[in-house]
Structure formats: C-alpha cells, structure tokens
C-alpha cells in the first residue's frame, strides 16, 4: 500500500492494530483542537478590532479604504462565527466522549465487583446458612435459659420436698 493511500485511508499509528484510538488519545486531540480554535478566535477578534479602528480612522476622508476595512471585518466576523459553531460541536463531542468513557469504566468496575461477589458466594450454600442460623438461635436460647437459671435466687428453705 502506498504512502498516499495509507494517509487517505487513516493508516495512522494511533488507529493501526487496535481498532481505533483510545478514549484518552481522542480526548487529548479534541482538547488540542479546542485550544487551537480558541487561539484563532482570539486572533480574529483582534483583527476585527483593528479593521474597525482602521475604518473609523479613514472615516469620510478615504471612503474606499474604510469600505475595504469594513469588508475585511465582515469576513473575519464570518470566520469567527464558523469557529464558534465548530467549537460548540467539538465541546459537545468531547463531553459525550468523556461521559461514554466514564460509563464504560463504571460498567467495567461493576462487572469486577459482580465477579468478586460471585467468588465470595461460591462456597456458601443457602441450606447450610439456614442450618447455621438455626443453630445460632438454639444456642442463644440455651444461653438465655442458663442466664435465667443463674440469675434466679435460690430459695433455700422456702421450698422443700415433703
């Protein structure tokens, strides 16, 4: 496969062999793109301010230069509007990816917890647990009877066998 076809078919190192980029890689790239677009936004805003200042400076003295400055300002505003829309889309996609990644991690951890619970409960039998609880109840009853017998005062002389 030629280098050009690899380039156009997305044969990059991040996507090769793993079925696509990891969520962390995609998030990093989205953040880089957001940062780049924010810088371009700031640049366009300063250019708009400069063109507006130039149009004011020329005013009625040089109408042609003032009109050219206003036309450039309008182009920059259009570019700025497009960047705003693109940024909104990228932010939405980044947030959706972050939520998906979080949900995946939560689900994975819940699966681990379920496996751990299953392993803990492997050696438990409900019949054995029921028998054990009955034995505990019986032993508590015996302990209570012993405690009652010890705590009753002995009635020497009050009761005797005829």
TrEMBL record:
<dbReference type="GO" id="GO:0005829">
    <property type="term" value="C:cytosol"/>
</dbReference>
<dbReference type="GO" id="GO:0031902">
    <property type="term" value="C:late endosome membrane"/>
</dbReference>
<dbReference type="GO" id="GO:0032511">
    <property type="term" value="P:late endosome to vacuole transport via multivesicular body sorting pathway"/>
</dbReference>
<dbReference type="GO" id="GO:0000815">
    <property type="term" value="C:ESCRT III complex"/>
</dbReference>
<protein>
    <submittedName>
        <fullName>CHM4C protein</fullName>
    </submittedName>
</protein>
<keyword id="KW-0653">Protein transport</keyword>
<dbReference type="Pfam" id="PF03357">
    <property type="entry name" value="Snf7"/>
</dbReference>
<keyword id="KW-0813">Transport</keyword>
<keyword id="KW-0175">Coiled coil</keyword>
<dbReference type="GO" id="GO:0015031">
    <property type="term" value="P:protein transport"/>
</dbReference>
<keyword id="KW-0967">Endosome</keyword>
<feature type="compositionally biased region" description="Gly residues">
    <location>
        <begin position="9"/>
        <end position="20"/>
    </location>
</feature>
<dbReference type="InterPro" id="IPR005024">
    <property type="entry name" value="Snf7_fam"/>
</dbReference>
<feature type="region of interest" description="Disordered">
    <location>
        <begin position="1"/>
        <end position="23"/>
    </location>
</feature>
<dbReference type="GO" id="GO:0009898">
    <property type="term" value="C:cytoplasmic side of plasma membrane"/>
</dbReference>
<comment type="similarity">
    <text>Belongs to the SNF7 family.</text>
</comment>
<keyword id="KW-0963">Cytoplasm</keyword>
<keyword id="KW-0472">Membrane</keyword>
<dbReference type="GO" id="GO:0006900">
    <property type="term" value="P:vesicle budding from membrane"/>
</dbReference>
<dbReference type="GO" id="GO:0005771">
    <property type="term" value="C:multivesicular body"/>
</dbReference>
């Amino acid at each position: 496969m030629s280098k050009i076809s690899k380039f156009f078919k997305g044969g990059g190192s991040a996507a090769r062999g793993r079925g696509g980029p990891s969520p962390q890689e995609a998030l990093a790239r989205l953040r880089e793109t957001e940062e780049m677009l924010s810088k371009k936004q700031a640049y366009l805003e300063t250019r708009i301010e400069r063109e507006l200042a130039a149009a004011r400076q020329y005013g009625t003295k040089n109408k042609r230069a003032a009109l050219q400055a206003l036309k450039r300002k309008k182009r920059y505003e259009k570019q700025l509007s497009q960047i705003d829309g693109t940024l909104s889309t990228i932010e939405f996609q980044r947030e959706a990816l972050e939520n998906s990644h979080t949900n995946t991690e939560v689900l994975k951890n819940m699966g681990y917890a379920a496996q751990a619970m299953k392993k803990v409960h492997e050696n438990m039998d409900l019949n054995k647990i029921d028998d054990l609880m009955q034995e505990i109840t019986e032993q508590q009853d015996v302990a209570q009877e012993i405690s009652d017998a010890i705590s009753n005062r002995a009635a020497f002389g009050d009761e005797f066998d005829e």
